[in-house]
């Protein structure tokens, strides 16, 4: 735990020293929120749209923006820098668990996303968005999104470990972006066309989005939350197993 | 430093094979090593000879294809974490985190070797003093000169007072003054009881620092002995009139030649 705590603190310190890395993670999701709501809000008026539960369309869109913000991590690119500069070898030569090498930077992604998502929700509140599940729901929401951020960025970090190249990592990360959009991000799943509904049903990110949406629009929905957290736990376990194996066999 | 009878490093039939685009590549082909405790052991060879690959296998950073390696009595393949506790590593590129300060970097390294936050801070302070970086301790590493980075890298390899220190080309790219400073550090570290395994391309460096050395080429060891024994062997074998240098030993071993070009610059080609 001492080693994980030391590596996590270092990664958080690094994030504080590079605030410019937070800009795209904040600006782009807020931009999409404003644009999407601006384009579609009149199609889905609050009074005539049952799935909004009396809220504005922005409340429905907020989870998509939070998940987009969660995907903008810097862990993988910093890792590539460390591999190229030789510091990763220094860390590998220390008698520490390989898991702490993987988790150190992801903890920083978790913390960054906590701050970002809390800020985004705070920005949204004056525009008439309510968190139906209350203060506790707000905390569950930002923790869930931030855990997903750590897992998602863990997969990008895995690409960095495999390719050891910044360009390949950036290209590789694009593979994961369709996951954010093959979701019910504009309308609920039952209103999607059949092919999109099938894609969204198979896409694990859908269940995190739906869990986040219930916290904002409906209150606590145990089944939806269970599915959301189960996806995070399953994907997180897979990411960790693959990452530790990759570090163990790293030559 | 007294050189002990006990081995600090032993390798038997050490091999590393890669599968590249053109098929299998044997980077290291059955290296045997026996480095006594307390020695400064030099490991020389031309570029691509297998020096760094051997160091990476001995320091647990690379898997071993065949053979065995023990460092400080620990099998590096079977017990990598135990081996890591006994070795310090400063690789070819000074492996440092540019966004941290020198003090933070050393404190982190100390915590990775089991210190708590308080004792890590104390240890970082001691090491900064040892390598004369106290004044720059709270500046980010990004702004350090090449020599300062190399000294910080050395210090970070010493946080846990390792039994064996691996230095992979520690002076490559340094100016002559910084190089001399690193040499002094190496002597001081060795005098404190640490066995030093040093790879270098600078033969003068090997002559100055090493008790014994080995020359590796094409993945295999082709000469081994003390600098003076290697020079004597060459003189006796070739009947040289003047006292051979380590350059002569190296060129004889690797089949290289000297070329004197314009401006009196002497180039060694292997």
Give a quick set of tags describing it:
heterodimer; A: 251 residues; mainly alpha; 0% strand; elongated; B: 270 residues; alpha/beta; 6-stranded mixed sheet; 4-stranded antiparallel sheet
Q: Would you mind describing this structure in some detail?
A:
The complex is a heterodimer of chains A (251) and B (270). Chain A is built from 12 helices and no strands. With 251 residues, chain A is mainly alpha-helical. In chain A, 43% of the residues are buried. Chain A starts with a helix and ends with a helix. In chain A, helix 2 packs antiparallel against helix 3, helix 3 crosses helix 11 and helix 11 runs antiparallel to helix 12. Chain A is elongated. Chain B has 270 residues and is of the alpha/beta class. Chain B contains 9 helices and 12 strands. In chain B, the strands form 3 sheets. A 6-stranded mixed sheet of chain B has the order 6-7-8-3-9-10, sandwiched between helices. In chain B, strands 2-1-4-5 form a 4-stranded antiparallel sheet, with helices on one face. In chain B, strands 11-12 form a two-stranded antiparallel sheet. In chain B, helix 5 runs parallel beside helix 6 and helix 8 crosses helix 9. Chain B starts with 6 loop residues before the first strand and ends with a strand. The C terminus of chain B is likely disordered. Classes of the chains: A mainly alpha (251), B alpha/beta (270). Chains A and B meet through helix 1 and helix 5 of A and helix 2 and helix 3 of B.
């Amino acid at each position: 735990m001492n080693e994980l705590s030391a590596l996590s603190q270092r990664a958080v310190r690094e994030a504080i020293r590079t605030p410019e890395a937070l800009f795209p993670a904040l600006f782009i999701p807020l931009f999409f929120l404003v644009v999407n709501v601006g384009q579609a809000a009149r199609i889905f008026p609050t009074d005539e749209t049952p799935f909004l539960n009396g809220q504005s369309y922005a409340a429905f869109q907020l989870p998509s923006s939070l998940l987009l913000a969660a995907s903008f991590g810097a862990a993988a690119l910093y890792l590539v820098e460390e591999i190229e500069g030789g510091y990763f070898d220094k860390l590998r030569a220390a008698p520490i668990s390989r898991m702490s090498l993987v988790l150190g930077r992801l903890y920083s992604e978790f913390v960054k996303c906590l701050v970002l998502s809390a800020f985004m929700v705070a920005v949204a509140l004056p525009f008439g968005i309510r968190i139906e599940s209350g203060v506790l729901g707000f905390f569950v929401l930002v923790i869930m999104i931030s855990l997903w951020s750590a897992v998602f960025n863990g997969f990008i970090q895995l690409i960095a470990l495999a390719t050891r190249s910044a360009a390949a990592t950036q290209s590789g990360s694009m593979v994961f972006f369709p996951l954010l959009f093959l979701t019910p991000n504009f309308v609920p799943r039952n209103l999607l066309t059949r092919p999109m509904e099938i894609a969204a049903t198979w896409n694990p990110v859908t269940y995190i989005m739906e869990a986040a949406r219930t916290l904002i629009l409906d209150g606590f929905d145990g089944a939806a939350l269970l599915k959301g957290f189960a996806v995070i736990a399953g994907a997180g376990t897979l990411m960790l197993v693959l990452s530790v194996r990759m570090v163990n066999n790293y030559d | 430093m007294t050189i002990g009878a006990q081995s600090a490093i032993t390798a038997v039939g050490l091999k590393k094979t890669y599968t590249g685009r053109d098929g299998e590549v044997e980077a290291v082909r059955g290296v045997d090593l026996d480095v006594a405790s307390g020695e400064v052991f030099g490991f020389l060879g031309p570029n691509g000879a297998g020096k760094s690959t051997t160091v990476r296998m001995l320091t647990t950073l690379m898997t071993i294809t065949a053979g065995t390696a023990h460092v400080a009595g620990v099998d590096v393949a079977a017990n990598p974490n135990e081996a890591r506790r006994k070795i310090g590593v400063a690789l070819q590129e000074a492996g440092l985190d540019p966004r941290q300060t020198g003090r933070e970097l050393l404190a982190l390294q100390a915590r990775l070797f089991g210190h708590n936050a308080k004792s890590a801070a104390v240890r970082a302070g001691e090491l900064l003093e040892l390598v004369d970086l106290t004044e720059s301790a709270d500046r980010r590493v990004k702004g350090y000169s090449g020599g300062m980075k190399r000294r910080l890298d050395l210090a970070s390899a010493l946080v846990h007072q390792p039994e064996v220190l691996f230095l992979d080309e520690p002076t490559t790219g340094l100016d002559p003054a910084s190089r001399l400073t690193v040499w002094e550090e190496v002597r001081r570290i060795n005098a404190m009881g640490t066995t030093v395994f040093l790879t270098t391309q600078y033969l003068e460096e090997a002559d100055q620092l090493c008790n014994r050395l080995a020359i590796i080429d094409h993945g295999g060891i082709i000469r081994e002995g003390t600098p003076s024994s290697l020079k004597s062997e060459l003189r006796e074998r070739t009947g040289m009139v003047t006292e051979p240098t380590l350059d002569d030993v190296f060129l004889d071993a690797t089949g290289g030649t000297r070329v004197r070009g314009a401006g009196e610059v002497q180039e060694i080609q292997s």
